[in-house]
Amino acid sequence: MIAWNHLGQAHSARWRSESGAPAPRRVVTADDTLSADTAYRLACEGTGLLWQGDFQNARMLLQALMRRVERKPRKAAARAAEKAAAATPAQLFHLHRQAQAQRARVLSSILIPLEADYGIDLRRAPDWRQACTEAWGPADGEASVATLRELLGLVGAFEWRKKGVDVPALGAGAHNRIHPHYGVFSPVRGEYVDLVADTSLPSTTLAFDVGVGTGVLSAVLVRRGVQRVVATDQDPRAMACARDNLKRLGVLDRVELLQADLFPPGRAPLVVCNPPWVPARPSSPIEHAVYDEGSRMLRGFLAGLAAHLEPGGEGWLILSDLAEHLELRPREQLLAWIAEGGLRVLGRHDMKPRHAKATEAGDALHAARMAEVTSLWRLAAIG
């Protein structure tokens, strides 16, 4: 719950946070009379600003806070640059994540009250009830409060879900789009999809897709002629998203969806897995697709793969080497886990990333991203 006082009266409501962040300990009501400088000072102190004014002015205030977060005094900027120049790649990564977390805390200070049906009773407020319902489920008749930043992300995801993401590996025309749900990572990094689409199949009878996500790799395998795919994920949102996409693409009859951690029962001639690439702690549910604390999923896949491969079968591990360039996991460690799993490397297909950050010189992790390569490792059981 989140609590505040307004005009001498105590109020409370349900607190909504996708990342699980606690509600601000101190909350004040705010409206159009609040200056951006005062709002920024309060936000840096950890105070929540429960908005009571014009909704569009709240959006403008958020943009003003963004400018202030990104604007650093000359001396502070010089100190930060000096610190970054002396840092190791791993230290740069952790500094980058600390800066991201601090930025998120400040920008999450603007709070929006929601009615029991997800309506927003503020001047010039949009109707985002459908977007909230798709993200959080049907309204439960309870008033709540969420950050404006989270609501904007939720609506952005809602628009992505309606529009979809074009996936050339699924073919041309209308039936090649993936519609990511809120909280499920979108397949915007196309190189891992292309690697699965272009590598020679060891068999077309059966494949396991471990960590199905949006369902894009299962769909690619079916479009390539695999007769049956068993796809797993432990996230209910991912399961619902994959089912919706596979149905849209007309391939659901050839894919069995199973909610499970890692492998389904049995063996297959092909087992595919695209685990999170960076061994770090996720700060929100959607970051579980990017960060794998302690390399839990990667290690689990490699440890259990041999037991789920048919004789002569292949395991396809799709993995970026970004963690290696950030000095978070050496290549020797990956090779050791492969050997410990009773596996050998049959081959490897590499692809350079094509996303915008790979060439963005201003990115804090520019050097690592420039060197990054995404690989499909073809693995087989020893003996």
From TrEMBL:
<dbReference type="InterPro" id="IPR002052">
    <property type="entry name" value="DNA_methylase_N6_adenine_CS"/>
</dbReference>
<dbReference type="Pfam" id="PF05175">
    <property type="entry name" value="MTS"/>
</dbReference>
<protein>
    <submittedName>
        <fullName>SAM-dependent methyltransferase</fullName>
    </submittedName>
</protein>
<dbReference type="InterPro" id="IPR029063">
    <property type="entry name" value="SAM-dependent_MTases_sf"/>
</dbReference>
<dbReference type="GO" id="GO:0032259">
    <property type="term" value="P:methylation"/>
</dbReference>
<dbReference type="InterPro" id="IPR007848">
    <property type="entry name" value="Small_mtfrase_dom"/>
</dbReference>
<dbReference type="GO" id="GO:0036009">
    <property type="term" value="F:protein-glutamine N-methyltransferase activity"/>
</dbReference>
<keyword id="KW-0489">Methyltransferase</keyword>
<feature type="domain" description="Methyltransferase small">
    <location>
        <begin position="200"/>
        <end position="319"/>
    </location>
</feature>
<dbReference type="GO" id="GO:0003676">
    <property type="term" value="F:nucleic acid binding"/>
</dbReference>
<dbReference type="InterPro" id="IPR050320">
    <property type="entry name" value="N5-glutamine_MTase"/>
</dbReference>
<keyword id="KW-0949">S-adenosyl-L-methionine</keyword>
<keyword id="KW-0808">Transferase</keyword>
